[in-house]
Amino acid sequence: MPGGTPYNGALMTSAISPGPASAVSDGSRYPYRHLLGIEGLSRPDIDFLLDRADGFVEQNRQVDKKSSTLRGRTLINLFFENSTRTRTSFELAGKRLGGDVINMSVSTSSIKKGETLIDTAMTLNAMHPDALVVRHSESGAVHLLAEKVNCSVVNAGDGSHEHPTQALLDALTIRRRKGHLEGLEVAICGDVAHSRVARSNIHLLSIMGARVRVVAPPTLLPSGIERFGVEVHHDMERGLAGCDIVMMLRLQTERMKGSFVPSIREYFRYYGLDEDKLQAAKPDALIMHPGPMNRGVEIDSVVADDIARSLIREQVEMGVAVRMAVLEILVTNQTEPWAKNQ
Amino acid sequence: MRPTLFKNARLLDPAARLDAKGAVLVRDGRIAEVGPQLFVDAIQEDVEVVDCGGRCLAPGLVDMRVQTREPGEEHMETLASLQAAAVAGGVTTVATLPNTSPIIDDISILEFVERLAQEVGLVNVHPYAAATKGLKGLEMTEIGLLSASGAVGFTDGVKAIADAAVMRRLLSYATMFDRVVIQHPEDPTLARGGCATEGEIATRLGLPGIPACAEVMMIERDLRLVRLTGGRYHAAHVSTAAAIEAIRRAKADGLKVTCDTAPQYFALNELAIVDYRTFAHMSPPLRAESDRQAVAAGVADGTVDAIASDHNPEDQDAKRVPFTQSVPGAVGLETLLPISLGLVHDGAMELLDLIDRLTLRPARILGLEGGTLAPGAWADLMVFEPDRAVRIDAHRFRSKSKNSPFDGKPAQGRVWRTVYRGRTVFDLDAEEPRSRREQSHA
């Protein structure tokens, strides 16, 4: 104990390890049992996931979209927080791989009866699923659950912590349009403080060699964000100057305790993405949004619906492909039932 | 009871500033003779001899911040399990917070708890009384009557006394009874919803943060009120460099101000919560490394008067949940000594000074005896091995709750024997504390 935990003063290492390695390490480049976050992954890990996802894009555009890689495997979508698009995306991904997919919305069932997260995890674990896809309103809840089950766990968003498949689908979308990620200038704008999407994207883009700026009022930036290796801006036009990609974030009023901006009107005036502010970016800059959009809050309809510049629909398409890749890699990594808790 | 002679010991008496080889003779529960000059062979009486084998003999520890869960939540801790844990940790005096159920804000409840504690009879239990009725932070409790019934201080426990006017009146009124007002120093509006110190680590983990300045803001406000009222003020579990600096200045100005800290604030920093380890979720939250170092330095130079365990028993349900939903706090009675000894092993301070922070100084803040080996004092003693390597094992705690951030960690220092009023209440060799209750049932 003397001196306590050794402290890394310039903490640029990950606060979270990617989790236990899978039973096989046959050279497959995603050697982990879970996907809990982007932080801690390496560039080859991410390249491997994206390459695999790329292959599924074509499959999804066929008339017959189904393969049988996950036949006989059970996937459970365990959502403790409401979601339509992410849950549907994971459900489609699992079904197109031939797996059996069960959806559980827990906010309405056992939690209200006082069952704890761990009880729920243990109950589901006893049914021998092969993968759990989990969304929870509290940061770290998915890690806790992953410690208690024998199957693979995919983080579908935990509190303000991470949303790794969103960052992967964003990266795939950019890569397919721009051909690469390295060297791109990416501006992430809006409610960074409450956004798990922002954290996962900052990690991923930095790992892949892109340069990230965050643009937001100080009240919507989390403390210490500059230590993530990003440029910090409070002015949209300066923040967008010369950038290749503009990523807008949803203003997460449901996660805010108290008033972080005075009004929607004022927020849109200074931080809403419209034609004027977009002038500062490169002429071929592309616009992204993780959805669901608040039109007239963080983004103007004209910009959101500009087919030439907006990647918003393509992001949704890539989402299915990325989730297929993640599920396939994690589940087929499993060659034998996991030893109980490692 | 036959007199007992503790011989062949390294005596550590902070009151006499004594650190020397010698012996202690205990008669009728009190220290009869003591010192390097005590000639063991010259004692004619029929005495029981305890050969300390060169181990350290010090006054029993005085732990000024302990939470019991009896009455109300006995599945987490009873006054019996609390006292058993205390003696295993070398603690012979505890001051307990009033946040039981019912809350200790009335003399009848205070006296009830005192009686329950005395029935166990392993250590001195001195309850604090609530500073405000129902811990609501609005109306003063009966400070005079509660003092007369044995309340050693007034506090709202784990809640800050937020209202400045209420704090002013408390400080002012308590001067009549020479009682100390103990604050949980944290601005509650800045702390609202937070569970980690604001900064890079909380941001990486996506946890809502509390700015570190929430502590010093409350302390600086209170110090203005101390200046205004002349009251006696104690800041509990200080954890930041800024707070310690504010208290250092106030002491230099002659204000009646004291403070304590808990071992986690000089032995751990905020990195302990990485991977969402809820057992390291504390209130106040663990801090940056620079703050940890300032707390260690404050203990060493005496700005931080006392080390208290901040013993906070919580059950599994409180900790086996997502970090944001977990209840902060750790049990500490059985790790107080070995973790604190880290400061001595690190070379930060002398052993006698550490014992001073763990015995004499907290006793003086509360107006209690203790922290002395002077003849005539109660023989509340602890014999320990300061260098012995140990691995902390929460499952072997006598406390009913096992929530410790130190579980599994190596440390140095172990209690060999604890003596309460001349009676051995913990004996490592026998591994079983003898309580009066057990004896009377035997």
Portion of residues within helices of chain A: 25-40%
Strand content of chain B: 15-25%
H-E string of chain A: HEHEHEHEHEHEEHEHHEHH
CATH C-level label of the largest domain in chain B: Alpha Beta
Largest sheet of chain A: 5 strands, parallel
User: What proportion strand of chain A?
Assistant: 5-15%
| SS-derived structural category of chain A | alpha/beta
Instruction: Give the count of helical stretches of chain B.
Output: 15
Distance between the termini of chain A: 27 Å
Q: Can you tell me about this structure?
A:
The complex is a heterodimer of chains A (342) and B (442). With 342 residues, chain A is of the alpha/beta class. Chain A contains 11 helices and 9 strands. In chain A, the strands form 2 sheets. A 5-stranded parallel β-sheet of chain A has the order 7-6-5-8-9. A 4-stranded parallel β-sheet of chain A has the order 2-1-3-4, with helices on both faces. In chain A, helix 1 packs across helix 11 (312-333) and helix 5 (164-178) crosses helix 6 (196-207). The two termini of chain A are 27 Å apart. Chain B has 442 residues and is of the alpha/beta class. Chain B has 2 domains: 4-57 and 378-441, Urease, subunit C, domain 1 (Roll); 60-366, TIM Barrel, CATH 3.20.20.140. Chain B is built from 15 helices and 19 strands. Chain B has helices spanning 79-88, 107-120, 143-148, 164-174, 188-191, 200-205, 213-229, 241-252, 264-267, 289-301, 316-319, 336-345, 351-358, 360-365, 436-441; strands at 4-13, 18-27, 30-35, 48-51, 56-59, 61-66, 91-96, 124-127, 129-130, 153-155, 180-183, 196-197, 209-210, 233-235, 257-261, 306-307, 381-391, 410-420, 423-427. In chain B, strand 9 (129-130), helix 3 (143-148) and strand 10 (153-155) form a beta-alpha-beta unit. The model of chain B is unreliable at 433-442 (pLDDT under 50). Chains A and B meet through helix 4 of A and helix 6, helix 12 and strand 18 of B.
